[in-house]
Amino acid sequence: MLKRIILLSAVALTALCATAQTSGEVRGKARHPKQFVGPNEPIGEGRGVHPGRVAWIHAPGVASWDGETGLWVEDRWNSQTKADAMVRAAVTTLAGKKSAAKAWRVLFADFNKTRGRGNRGYRRGEKIAVKLNMNNSTSHSETVELNSSPFVTLALVRSLVNDGGVAPGDIVICEPSRAITDSIYNKVYREFPDVTFVDNIGGDGRVKCEYYENRITYSTDNGRMARGLARCIVDADYLINSALLKLHNGPGVTLTAKNWYGATDIALQWRQNAHNNISQDKRHGKPGYKTFVDWMGHKDMGGKCLLFLIDGTYGSRGVNGAPAGQWKTPPFDGGWCCSLIASQDGVACDAVAMDMLIGEWPDYGSLNYCDEYLREAASLPDAPSGTVYFQDGKPVTRPLGLMEHWNNARERKYEKIGLLYKKVEN
After folding, report:
1. 3-state secondary structure at position 118
2. N or C: which end of the chain has fewer CB within 10 A?
3. Beta carbons within 8 Å of 259's beta carbon, 6+ residues apart
4. pLDDT per position in the chain (426 positions), as tens?
5. CA-to-CA distance for 42 and 84, rounded, in angstroms?
């Protein structure tokens, strides 16, 4: 049984990590990648009940795969109890409530109020779509490669139903561009058979995804990019973006903003898809239009997202393959990241996750200027690239969230992003 959850501010976390400074465990001596935004130079406006708040939930032992034996998705390598505690801690921290039930009511009410639907919670019959990241899966069979965690996914559904009062039949677990593997389907279906599963291939209890054509209009000539959008995404009343904590060749990171790409009508085989403007140009470091910003501001994508989650139970150095690169910086000290990052602010959520990845692997080759999309999104309507970003034919007139880098990887201090660290202990 979990005995306690310890809440620390980012300042208190500094003391927890300080002992590693002289041992060389903190990689501050490694060359820091070039970024557009300097440390503690906040841009934009925070969003959420507590604007710009980000919850970092750390549960050592939630992931314990030895990196060699079997598959990382097996029950013996993961703690469902801790995963459940992580999700509940995330929503209570964001809402500032002691119980998950009260927290969900607050999150739903804030979402509806800010979108002109009244100060009310979820109503039975309203659909909640959870967008997973199954980028490394093209069939329902299990793979050693890193995708969304079955344990975090089940924990989220459990909390929505048992704490949030959501009817299981109103929940849609989806991955429009890839396949939802058996480890996720079976684990959730056993407890909640009324939940709908939608993926790219259908069958085996999954519904094959259908798309609305030409639902995405890009703010500039973007070349050959997907413009269709999954029906399960468009038809949902609320979205939860459940992304992964991973590095990625090209854009540098793959977090919540890039996870929207999988909601479009791209091909199952990634090599068949155009990727215009997704990768930053690593040579010149000049501002430019970013596709991610159009997705982040789209009324049926980022604009309809109730909650942003970044699953870092097996935070990984690479986008492909098995989870790799156990974390050496404090408070991880050689184990898996065992973390869940959550926010109502998609910009702030990605900013914290980006800082964590850069702090752990500053030598990764694609990290230069990886923060460009966050600077663009937070600077609206005055994007540094000069791009006028449109939504529904009208220019976006306010920032999409709060962007800031922490001061350094040891102290992890922000001026405006409200980073709250919680450690789940046995």
Report:
1. coil
2. N
3. 131, 133, 241, 242, 243, 244
4. 444 455 555 545 554 554 444 333 344 456 889 999 999 999 999 999 999 999 999 999 999 999 999 999 999 999 999 999 999 999 999 999 999 999 999 999 999 999 999 999 999 999 999 999 999 999 999 999 999 999 999 999 999 999 999 999 999 999 999 999 999 999 999 999 999 999 999 999 999 999 999 999 999 988 889 999 999 999 999 999 999 999 988 888 999 999 999 999 988 887 788 777 777 665 678 899 999 999 999 999 999 999 999 999 998 888 888 898 789 999 998 999 999 999 999 999 999 999 999 999 999 988 999 999 999 999 999 999 999 999 988 999 999 999 999 999 999 999 999 999 999 986
5. 33
* Tokens 């139970």, located at residue: 313
Buried-exposed string 336-354: b where 16+ CB fall within 10 A, e elsewhere: bbbbbbbbbbbbbbbbbbb
How many whole angstroms separate alpha carbon 161 and alpha carbon 316?
Answer: 30
Q: Which amino acid is at 410?
A: R
68 burial level (CB within 10 Å; 0-12, 13-18, 19+): exposed
Residue 207 host element (H or E): strand 207-208
Amino acid at 13: L
Q: How many Å apart are CA 173 and CA 377, to the nearest integer?
A: 27
In terms of pTM, does the model score above 0.85?
yes
The tokens of 74 are what? 């097996």
Tokens describing residue 282: 């690593």
Question: What is the identity of the amino acid at 291?
Answer: T
Phi, psi of 195 (to 5 degrees): -65, 140
Q: How many CA atoms lie within 13 A of 260 on its CB side?
A: 29
What is the C-alpha R_g of the chain? 20
- The answer to whether 134 and 243 have CB atoms below 8 angstroms apart is no
Joined together, the tokens standing for residue 214 give 């030409």
Query: Which residues 6+ apart lie within 8 Å of 286 measured at CB?
Result: none
> How many residues in the chain?
426
